[in-house]
């Protein structure tokens, strides 16, 4: 057979990507705070004043030109050599960035980098690098040379400390908010249902699984085909790393926030995969399946097929994170099938309050760190501090005034249709945006001191401009202004939230158990759902037995130990 | 050294133990052969053998963050984890099963294809078909499996549509959720992707067959099938045997990409291979030592197998790998 | 045959064979044509599925995305250079080694064969290999593409097997004429081995051309050493990433409608860009093994 070159387990192209996505996927499990969160920790006005001082200070600072090498642990495209924004940074801040981006598998790349013992100046976060002592503590540097950084992270200072030795190694790239956070669309988890169904049923608000599937079955009965193809009542995606559509629903139905594989009650985490809250949901899916409403191919399909089905407009509903099928939904919009796009509802079991929406959390163990090989850490901190200035944040996030955006008579930023269009052109972006730096560097999120949203995506006017007439009609019928209003406002986060962010430690019993649990779920849940109604209980019993063989406790213990640690170390203000 | 060619003209002559002095004499006469091969042997020892010290990490809890000397030595823990797991026998069965199917299907289809292609008279047609047949080799598995999944879909997939039109089945079959079809689907996908590529080597071998043999057979009145059977097949016999022995050594390398991309929870008991197991419980959770341990296990099996196969081939008087 | 009675059999066979071959050509051509069609179809439209042999809407945006960075032109020449140099060197050294182990009288034949063959069945692992490359000062050097993989055990065995099928008399008569092994190898074996050398050249060249992992491990921080496949891998990784990353996919509908280039469409365009140059080479090699050599003339 393909005997020419023996493929090594390491050396596969697509698998490397699958892997790095798997890792990205864990992080992608949640955090979709799109509610209007008023952080309230800072007064925008005083923030602005400080920012002004800061920029004055930076200007007089020593700006001797420097080249900073950086490794970015995600695949991005190399910007063009004459990229407008990077050039501006080089001209005005004296910093030339020499970036290397990940290709293939991150863990592999880091393994080799650590083994070789040589690092670039700036490096994106990974716990391995701390263990390897590849990065230096940043607290003192920030204290002395990073006034913007110090203020930016003031509220999160304790959380940023590494749990092993109390030093700060990483500068989180997301989740430090300033002013008001606008969020209009909702990209988190929900039970999604087509807008046509709601319209036909007179805009009801389903709150339970029964309400939801009643709407779907009534509609499917009336419309056995959509655009000539058979209607699919409900589908789910459980392929590769994209398994949350199948696995995460029970925690939301039972009113818990998204903690990944566990639910946390009174600070104690437990695995819910075989709990009653899970059984109730999958039993319901079993009923739905035997009713003929569930997609027969749900557990066999890959992500491409799932998206193709959704974009054909004949899938009535599914549980998923919005961003996971957004591409398919965009395609429906492009075909002007607005009625076949979706609204998300926070379904719960009877009498339980929903907790789908959550507040943004600081993106710990992410962003940049400075390596032990960096020749001039002070200069690097000064650079990261300078780019956090509002002036530079606007350049990085919005672009240059008059070129990338306009300012109206009220001082509001907006983009012309042409400017919006060029933001969509990948080739243009490589030459005109500093996306990689923006993605990993500390950044202001929320609003600037002049009241503009920090980036175009969350500027309210940009959102309203994008709504279609059908969307407006639907929102009006529910008396809502944004999609996130379908959900209860996000309560204050518990101090340890979210549990999914906890590192399970490579190769530990906890991480082995985690794998075994997801294997067992992917093996038995489809069988249970697709079994005859009277067989469900016995398959479920097999499932429970399979879990009994797994060291679930090792997994729970690790999570609980970290939750306790967080409560002790993070509670102090 | 005029006697040398005569001495080696029969296999047995080499095998008979030569006295020591004659060995030295032969070595002296083979200076050129040694110059041609020994530096390259050193090269292989350096690039392929020297790094084997890395196998030691199979007996450690290897963490890349620490220098080698500070690693935790754990003895046979990794091997125990590998062999003790309930699923190990299952993944071993799947690996061997799929490898075997791929081996047989891959050989048979490539050989038949090469021989049939050889029967085509028109050079242009021959070349065109050969070029087309090896195109899928250049597509990645992710593309090919995507096409396979679409072709097998219950939702208008070509396979179900055709079978229904022909009246073989009355409702679409969910091919990819039937565990017992999985090996066959993987085997067929391999054939689809690689048959043309695998045939190249046999086509090259066919060219070494002396055309006068065909002419002689024709005079004897042999028909086409006789010639294929009695001349073409024996002509490529050595390469077939050698490739078979070599491939036998890869029986535990059923791959992981196809199975990973086509597999799903429903068929996992038939789709999971050793490599996937190692990927999940080794590489994906940072346990590099497990991957090394599995690699050692596979190497031991491979090398045992090729020596056994080689001995069997020798006994039957066939060509040998070693 | 024609001169004898016209028999039905050859006609039946030829038609049967033609049908089989055409069917095979159709099913093996399809994936490539499908990839070609997808590569010319807008990515967001491809999500809907149903692209077979022809794009639904023509676009060159996928190819524009591939060529946008401008880095792949230089990388293309690096790939050409490494493929040419490594193929010539590897072909020469591997066949020379193959010749020595094909000589039954060679005293080291067995140990050399065993040592080389075994390399097919083990793999030392990433980290030790990395250290070796580092110690040899091959990191971030063009030589790292050439030096480590010059000898392939598989190819050596293939060539050896071919040499062994050549008539023994050839070499013996050369020896009688007083030719040393070098001369025998160059002037008799090499010319006679054209078909198998063409095959092995193809194997080596395709392997070299498609390789990106060595760039990833050993030369990723030096842009001037980047190869075509590595640039294309970068592109593919970044397309897959931005499509599946919540923080990128986040945001409102206005700027989310932008994913014109999706992983599926970019992968298709990349596949075409990467494979066309190597496919072009093939017909040139093909003549060596479709024609066949007339060994009879050299035989005695």
From TrEMBL, chain A:
UniProt-annotated stretches for the region Disordered: 35-56
InterPro entries (UniProt xref): Bact_solute-bd_prot1
Keyword Signal: yes
Ranges annotated as biased composition (Low complexity): 45-56
Gene3D superfamilies: Periplasmic binding protein-like II (3.40.190.10)
Keywords annotated in UniProt: Signal
Keyword DNA repair on entry: no
Coiled-coil segments on the chain, per record: none
Region forming the signal peptide: 1-24
Annotated protein name in UniProt: Sugar ABC transporter substrate-binding protein
Organism: Paenibacillus sacheonensis
UniProtKB/TrEMBL annotation, chain B:
Subcellular location: Cell membrane; Membrane
Gene Ontology cellular-component terms listed: plasma membrane
Classification via InterPro entries: MetI-like, MetI-like_sf
Domain ABC transmembrane type-1: 92-309
Membrane topology: Multi-pass membrane protein
GO biological process: transmembrane transport
Main location: membrane
Residues annotated as signal peptide: none
Family, similarity comment: Belongs to the binding-protein-dependent transport system permease family.
Protein name in the entry: ABC transporter permease subunit
Organism per entry: Paenibacillus sacheonensis
TrEMBL record, chain C:
GO cellular component: plasma membrane
InterPro entries recorded: MetI-like (IPR000515), MetI-like_sf (IPR035906)
Record flagged with keyword Cell membrane: yes
TM region positions: 12-33, 76-100, 112-133, 139-163, 184-206, 264-285
Domain of life: Bacteria
Mode of membrane association: Multi-pass membrane protein
PANTHER family documented for this protein: ABC TRANSPORTER PERMEASE PROTEIN MG189-RELATED-RELATED, POLYGALACTURONAN_RHAMNOGALACTURONAN TRANSPORT SYSTEM PERMEASE PROTEIN YTCP
Similarity comment text for this entry: Belongs to the binding-protein-dependent transport system permease family.
Name of the protein this chain belongs to: ABC transporter permease subunit
Source organism of this protein record: Paenibacillus sacheonensis
